[in-house]
Amino acid sequence: MRFAGWEALASVAVGTVLCDQFTKALVLAYLGPNGSIDAVVLIPGLLRLFYVENTGAAFGLFQGRNPILAVLALGVVLVLVVTFRYLTSTSLGAVALGLQLGGAIGNLIDRFRHGFVVDFIDLSFWPTFNVADSAITIGVLLLLVLLIRSDRLPRSDAPQASEPVDAEQQAR
């Protein structure tokens, strides 16, 4: 059986990976170790673009554990792909998981290619991050909202309180 949400999941994931890798290529070319610019201030005191080599996980945790983190990221990618159709059946759910999958793949490419993840978005009050990290965060938050909302909504196959239940429905 073919699930229609795969196209949305794949499109969002591929788009996320392309956007992530494109921005990281620009950062490596202009802000990286051989780049000509130290940092780009976009909003003074709040937002700047600044090159960081992150050998750890989110928020700089587990620095220097790249091989373990790469294996964990591969596991996350596999879990997302395998469990996709069980987690959500909506197109918005496909977008949420596509963002997570694309972000995980984008950072995984960095780990294998460079031995670290390229981070460059620096908010004065938050650890430095990248497009992939943003996609993962937005995807997780979106999925949480969908899961919370799905618990509150009546299931489409369940009879509504105002609908009479006939003998055939009771037999199921």
Summarize the structure.
The chain is mainly alpha-helical and 172 residues long. It contains 5 helices and 3 strands; from the N terminus they run H-E-E-H-H-E-H-H.
Commentary on this structure:
- This protein has 172 residues and is mostly helical.
- The chain has one domain (11-36, 48-149).
- Helices cover 58% and strands 12% of the residues.
- The protein has helices at 5-30, 66-87, 91-114, 131-152, 167-171; strands at residues 39-43, 47-54, 117-123.
- A 3-stranded antiparallel sheet has the order 1-2-3.
- Helix 1 (5-30) packs parallel to helix 3, helix 2 (66-87) packs antiparallel against helix 3 and helix 3 packs antiparallel against helix 4.
Descriptive keywords:
172 residues; mainly alpha; 12% strand
Count of all domains: 1
Question: Unreliable runs, pLDDT <50, ≥5 residues?
Answer: none
**Global morphology:** globular
Share of residues in strands: 5-15%
Please describe the biggest sheet, giving its number of strands, its sense, and whether it closes into a barrel. 3 strands, antiparallel
Total of helices: 5
* Average pLDDT score: 78
Based on DSSP secondary structure assignment, what is the total number of beta strands?
3
* Sheet with most strands: strand arrangement: 1-2-3
Report, as a whole number of angstroms, the end-to-end distance: 23 Å
What is the radius of gyration? 21 Å
Helix content: 55-70%
State the secondary-structure class: mainly alpha
Order of helices and strands: HEEHHEHH
